[in-house]
Input
Amino acid sequence: MRNYKKEYSNYQGTAAQKKNRASRNAARNALKKAGVVKKGDGKDVNHLNGNPKDNSRKNLQVTTKRANRSFPRNSRAGKA
Output
């Protein structure tokens, strides 16, 4: 059985992960204000250069959840 409290305290609750999550939320909110995405649309906001701290409009693109959350399973998997 998955221990969500332990997972949160060991990973998701760390200061670094909270900062990353806040940055991702800020990127999505910026595109929501621009009218590009909306709540429940099934889309993700993708950072083109892989840097989640760079939320400039030229670095953001809207993709499907499937395209953004999957990656090729090879030696370069997950690397920009």
